[in-house]
Design brief:
Blueprint: E1 2-3, E2 20-33, E3 39-51, E4 56-63, E5 66-70, E6 72-75, H1 78-83, E7 94-99, E8 110-117, E9 122-128, E10 143-153, E11 157-166, E12 170-177, E13 180-185, H2 192-197, E14 208-214, H3 217-222, E15 226-232, E16 237-242, E17 245-247, E18 282-291, E19 296-305, E20 309-316, E21 319-323, E22 325-328, H4 331-336, E23 347-353, E24 361-371, E25 376-385, E26 398-402, E27 407-408, E28 411-412, E29 420-428, E30 432-439, E31 442-446, E32 448-451, H5 456-459, E33 470-475, E34 483-493, E35 498-507, H6 525-538, E36 543-549, H7 556-568, E37 575-580, H8 587-591, E38 601-603, E39 614-620, E40 624-625, H9 631-636, E41 645-653, E42 661-664, H10 671-676, E43 684-687, H11 688-693, H12 698-719, E44 723-732, H13 739-753, E45 758-761, E46 768-771, E47 779-786, H14 792-802, E48 808-815, H15 824-836, E49 839-842, H16 849-859, E50 864-868, E51 872-874, H17 879-887, E52 892-900, E53 906-908, E54 911-913, E55 921-923, E56 943-945, E57 952-956, H18 957-962, H19 975-985, E58 989-1000, H20 1015-1028, E59 1051-1054, E60 1068-1073, ...
Parallel strand pairs: 1-62, 10-17, 36-37, 36-39, 37-38, 41-44, 47-48, 47-50, 48-49, 52-58, 60-61, 60-63, 61-62, 63-64, 64-65, 66-67, 66-69, 67-68, 69-70, 70-71
Antiparallel strand pairs: 2-3, 3-7, 4-5, 4-8, 6-7, 8-9, 10-11, 11-14, 12-13, 12-15, 15-16, 18-19, 19-23, 20-21, 20-24, 22-23, 24-25, 26-29, 27-28, 29-33, 30-31, 30-34, 32-33, 34-35, 39-43, 40-44, 41-42, 41-43, 45-46, 50-57, 51-58, 52-53, 52-57, 54-55, 56-58, 59-71
Helix pairs in contact: 6-33, 12-13, 21-25, 27-28, 27-33
Length: 1425
Amino acid sequence: MTVQPTEKTSVSAQPGFAGKIWIDLAQITEVVTDADGKRRIRSGLVSGWAIGPDPFQSIEIILEGRRIASAKVGRYRPDVAEIYPSIPHAEYTGFEAVLTGGELPEGPCQIILMAVGTSGKVFVKRFPLSGAEGEFAPSSMAMRTHVERCEIDGSGMLCISGWAVAQAPIISVQIFGNGRKIAGTLPGLQRPDVAELFPHYPNADRSGFFVTASLQMAEQARAETITIEVLARDGTLRRVVTTPQQVRQITLAPDVARADVPEPQAPLPAAEPDAPAQPEDSWFFCDVIDVDTTGRCQISGWSAALAGIDTLSLHYGGAEIGQAITGQPRPDVGRAYPNLPNAANSGFSFDLTHRAGLPEGPASFMVMAALKDGSRRAFEISAMIVPPSARVSPFEDIVLGLDTFQLDAGHATRPVTGAFKLSGWAVARAGVRQIEVFLDGTSLGLAYIGIRREELPEIFFDFPDTLLAGFALSVPARVLKNGRSEVRIVITDRKSGVLENRFTIDVARDAADLGRNALRQKVPFAEVLTGLDILAARGPMPVCDIILRADARPRLAERVQATLRSLDRQAYPHWRVWLSTPEGIAIDDLTRHLPHLAGRVAPLADHAAPDAPGFMLMLRAGDVLAADGLLGPLLAADTTGAPAFVYADDRRPDPLAPGEIAAFHKPGWSPDLLMSQNYIGRAWLASAALLREARIRLPDLAGLGDYGAVLRLSAEAARLDAIRQVPILMLEISATETPALERKALQTHLRVEGRLGRVRQGAAPFLHRVERTGTPGGKVSIIIPSIGARDHILRCVESIRKNSGGAEVEIVVVDNIRRRKITAEGRAWKTWFRAHADLVVEVDEPFNWSRLNNLGAAAASGDYLLFLNDDVEVLHDDWLDVLMAEAARPEVGVVGAQLLYPDGKVQHAGMFLSRSMPGTARHAFRFAASDDPCYFGLALSQRELTCVTGACMMVRREVFDAVAGFDEAHAVVNNDIDFCLRLRATGRSVIFTPHARLLHHELASRAHLKDDFDRSAFLQTWGDLCLAGDPYVSPSISTEADDFVPEEEPLREVYPGHPLGATDQIRRILVVKLDHIGDLVTALPAIRQLKAQFPKAHLSALVGRSAMGIASMEDAIDELIPFEFFDARSGLGRKKLTRADYAALERDLTARQFDLAVDLRKHADTRHILQISGAPLTAGFDNDREFPWLDIALGWERDTVQADKRNHVATDLLNLIGAIGSAFTTARRTIATAADRLPPLSDALRAEFGGLFARDYVVIHPAAGTPLRQWSPAYFARLIDLLIEEDGVNVALIGGPDEADIASNILNRLHARDGVFNLVGRSKLAEVPRIMAESVLFVGNNSGPSHIASGMGVPTVAVHSALVSSDEWGPLGPSAVALRRDMSCAPCYIAHAEQCHRNLACLQSLSPFDVHRLCQRFLALRRGG
């Protein structure tokens, strides 16, 4: 055993974290002046939260050097726990202090908060005290709530009491446990103490509430927290989350049924009552009081009496104004007071007019209640009489409630850290028509309305559509900017009434990782095993020969080692490195710190021609491969020995942000883009067969350089149709070639290929442009449909005449000015057309863009057809030369130009198909600056695209005729998209060039026209392409934005379950046990057990110096690493550590290259040590997913007051080691029955479906039992077609008799039924395992058959929704995967499809082509290559 010395250090709760005190409110609500003229605080409140390295034991409020209050600390604050997840006591950091005294100075004043931690450390915070000068701001908080009692006894009786005040009437107090409503009530109990504290809130004197409920045993066992939700009439909502206190027996006040409960006590001494309170026998509450000077009185609420109410009358100045309408439905009151007579119909309303009018100002009204027993009761109402023009809405017409945020003075109390779902509810008397959400003035779109809200019909009983009044809108992270932003919600009802709600949020996004832009540092071992099995099934495992070029830049050894370490972490094990070094540098000097790799690294000069199929890769020192950097591309490649070139995404220096690295999610194969920039970079693999075809030896490859090698290899691979793309981040590139070197390589490549052209700088310094020499001849017919809207065509034609150079141009104007009801202006334009166009084609028909251009093309005589909108203006004189040079290329179908808005912003830089709205396309980089290269220069790079806009497109005449022009079924929109797609179907390319630039006013000719578009007809033709996805937009890029931002909800393959690794691959283990001596002793059995599970591993223990003596006695520990985290005396807590201390520790630990790191402390304060250990696998205790990055986690019981633990700590530590052992279990089959023991198929079944077994077949179970897991039958049908057409397999549909309708739906959608066998309801359940076992693949939803197939070892692809976690419920087996979208709202655990505000987008966005690509990979497992 060795002991590694380190210097003594100290520690804190979190590196660099000292602590923070946050004040939510510091408000005086009432000031009194004593006999001496001194002003004193009578009531006030200070609340907030305080967090430090240790819990706070006291917080004192000091004013003018005197303590005026002590705060109650330890209140539940889950919002703080979300901000500081690594601090274990963060959720109990709230405090509240009630101010009942203290002398006030003159003028503004400050209070001092002095917080003392358990370690004795003192924190001080100064904060201004509002209201000191009488400027009370009761409206600064719309609502205040306080829960004084929350108890539960052994029988399941729950008792809750407290108070709530608000500016608007409180209409509901709801109690929830574990997401389920338990009970409801209303405030109404007398609370004079609250009225004294908050006199400015209406009904504060009757703000108390008291509720009891009996929980069933199952609910009681789960009732860890209780949520009290208080709702006001104006939509203000507060939630209080608390933990019920366990008591022996709930004590209830007598006669609770009559609601005569004793008054609960407020958190400050109440004034002594003059006399004992008398039992109440009648109740009266106003929800709305609206009175103006004309005498109009609108007052409503509810009233009840034990004797029953006969009439209610309103009085002013001793005279009766009129009587109320009584007996109105109030189900909320009936629910809250079920034993009160007629409570469910206790509503009343006054809508009266006092003929003499009323004086402006405060007034008192009297309501007289005549009871059925003949007695009378009087209730006083205080009102503010205002002029009619100053009447305030009673918040009745439209009401909004928010779920996502709790607001305080119009500000969200919790920060936003990423994408979120804005949800809530909205009701309107006229019905809600739409809800639009704005962020900083920009519309985010319309929210989805229709989520079930069962509590609302009882509250808003006189509003329509309340049951489905919930709404939601997903807000993507890309629209969020760090700092403060304003959210505006605009609700419009069906009578055009509008309610606007504005509030602010604080956005604090993690700048280090704003999406899926990081290299994978580890790959689940189950995924690795499956991938290796697939490659092995194809044939011999290829060896990857990697050229590693070492240059003379600084820190060469460090850069080489970084690259080699990334190779050492590869999921694919078959690789070797050929090192190319500057003269005079020995390989041993570069690999000294990685001795175990010595046999896999050799000089490049020693390489001989490969005698077996393999792949080549060229890296530069400092490049870092992702953990699946070799495995991922190999799975996408043809590994059978044929020529192949596979490229992937990478992280590289951002050309627009010097010094920064960004992820480049690349488009599909684009030769023109490759001529504009080296977009492929070094993220590629080339097969040895391809190098032989290209006549390139491996040692010669390095001499070509990055760009030269890619140009040479891709050109050869393109001729052989051997280029494949895999959309994964393969590596991080350390440096790129200079633009000058790249242009030299490109010029050389053009010369070798025999192409004529001159290379020059492109539209940005890092881009290139190939100017094709020898401009093609021929006439250009420019076809311009026009109705003479505004004078755009005048400027259009003039700019063409001015900027056409020497080109032969024919301007063809298609006159679409209708002669019916023609105006003088229209006749003038017709005359102008004939005078200025070379040819006019008059079309007196309704506007149809396709037909107008077809007629123009038919009349034109040019060799090239340029279709141009009449609102386009030419800006440069070389535009036609540029377009003609590209259109003349034989492989090109159509060319589009860059179009700009009049303000210089981009209107068109190419188009791409939308995944979220199939059948539509977006304009790339719309609204960007004209000279902004945008995402890795794509906006200014000439490149292949799926489509370009018809506002400016050039095509050769013979190409246009070959596809019969434009489809006239597309009259207004999608005609250009359809035309481009038909050209691509003939094998021709669609080109966007930024080197021809024009101005476009857009929609000038058809501003009055609707976008007439038959989407279903378009999808009939192009549905497959839309579902498969635009090949020039990476699946990692969102198609819901124009600016190529990362897809926030990408596809993910989930390989769930064990093993997490191979036992023999765990060579070095780190055990973190930074506790005191006693704690270390209790961990020794666990350390021995860990060593027994990995006997060949070197086990190091990170321990405190005081515990090293005991630790050195343990034979299971091979090495001790001392580190001072706690003081030697347990009572003194943790030491203070600097960032430098942690950095030194990280360097020490990472240099040891641990494979597994385990934290044997249950409390969370040392868990972050695992993250700096460098170990790819980590294990430790967790609670409520506080550490989601742990690979192996075991839950633990928190230190709950007055609750004994189940286990000794040593047992818990052994359980953690047991969990580690389970995670390395190699057996992944859940069904161990041998194939020969499965029940046989009946002779009748084999006879009836004999054709099924004649060739390989795939089993598909298309049902799921619930729409929440059900993939579309239409998608299943398309998947079946793909499997049969492309993979030559049969398909067997299985399921029960009750699933026959789904099967029929699928069968009716198939292109052809040959090869499809419907066994749904035809086979016995006992035969299903045999049917699966003999198949080559199983495909299904997240349902039982998926688990059966995977459990038997059948290759399984399960289509998952976002309902549950696929990591928890994915198919478990040796060859099984779940395919899902990583939705921002997942897992949702909703009960009904109607509750999904996104219409099950998680399933709708999984296309059959996504599933088929995965199926093709898995088919190799039983079919070979």
